[in-house]
Specification:
eleven-stranded mixed β-sheet; Pseudouridine synthase; 7 helices; alpha+beta; 2 domains; 315 residues; single chain
Length: 315
């Protein structure tokens, strides 16, 4: 069994709480120089961008030295650089710390804030904010919430312990409870358990329910109703992308403020915070794999549509 290569520590510091990008050159290929490979690998950056980064000395090797444009191709070589940060609209809502100890940080994430850097959301993410605000550069996410979903997210303080906490979610040892506001349907028998197979294709905005082995299970309960809307308790036992949003839509009661289900609508412009998705990760319960402590965390947030339901009824 071939051993994985040891990854050296990054020679560049974090920038605004964001790690440098690491690229490892393949063992074989037609490239004569490091530049040729990076131009191909980073083709999405645009014409001339990689050359400009070489000219600015932004690519470095494991020793921290600048990699020259003419540097020969070296199979297995690691190259680091900082991505060009996109222009981001600040998310004007607080990120509340619910719990912090030497092993974990649990936060109550607002709507519209991504959990980790991805795509056009890099600095304006929960992870980058927390690294800066708490001064914990090694902080990492144990799981993720959609950018549009608010509520509890678990982060780990020590990189060597992250795998143990991630395993809790992978092995379904965390009890997660969500809350949603959606239309009330008198003919919908609740509580109900929805079972289906969900497929989320890369590059496609919405996930789909397809034929095949079940990989998504959600329990849906009615908590209360008024004026055509209802508040629901959602308890997933699996963690497929957009699972709760897909299942609520399939029941005929799509979550208010959802731009993808039941139909994909025009994307909400950055900076438009008027209609947040009415989905909240309300509770997390688990046994700490490092300390053995029984943790029970609960979000203090309230869903806007339920507090001002007259403005949302019929939406």
């Amino acid at each position: 069994m071939r051993r994985k290569p040891r990854i050296p520590p990054p020679p560049l510091p974090q920038l605004h709480g964001v790690d440098p990008v690491r690229v490892r050159l393949p063992a074989e290929g037609p490239w004569a120089t490091v530049r040729e490979y990076l131009v191909e690998r980073l083709s999405g950056a645009g014409v001339g961008v990689v050359d400009g980064m070489f000219d600015a000395g932004k690519f470095v090797g494991a020793d921290g030295r600048t990699v020259a444009r003419a540097a020969g191709y070296a199979p297995g070589m690691f190259v680091w650089f900082h991505r060009e940060l996109p222009d981001e609209v600040p998310v004007p809502f607080p990120l509340e710390v619910v719990h912090r100890d030497e092993h974990i940080v649990v936060v109550d994430k607002p709507h519209f804030l991504a959990t980790t850097p991805r795509g056009s959301h890099v600095v304006e993410t929960a992870l980058a904010r927390l690294r800066r605000e708490l001064d914990i550069p090694a902080l990492g996410a144990a799981h993720r919430l959609d950018r549009l979903t608010a509520g509890l997210v678990l982060f780990t303080v020590r990189p060597e312990e992250r795998g143990a906490y991630q395993a809790l979610f992978r092995e379904k040892q965390v009890r997660k409870e969500y809350e949603a506001v959606a239309p009330y349907e008198s003919g919908l028998p609740l509580p109900a358990t929805v079972r289906s197979r969900i497929l989320k294709e890369r590059g496609v905005l919405a996930a789909q329910q397809v034929e095949g082995e079940v990989n998504a299970v959600s329990r849906v309960e009615l908590v209360e109703r008024r004026d055509g809307l209802a508040r629901y308790r959602l308890v997933p036992s699996t963690g497929q992308t957009h699972q709760l949003r897909v299942h609520m839509s399939a029941l005929g009661v799509p979550i208010l403020g959802d731009p993808l289900y039941p139909v994909v609508t025009d994307p909400v412009p950055d900076g438009d915070f008027r209609r947040p998705l009415q989905l909240l990760a309300r509770a997390l319960e688990f046994t700490d794999p490092v300390t053995g402590t029984e943790h029970r965390f609960r979000s203090a947030r309230a869903l806007e549509a339920w507090n001002s339901y007259g403005d949302w009824a019929g939406q």
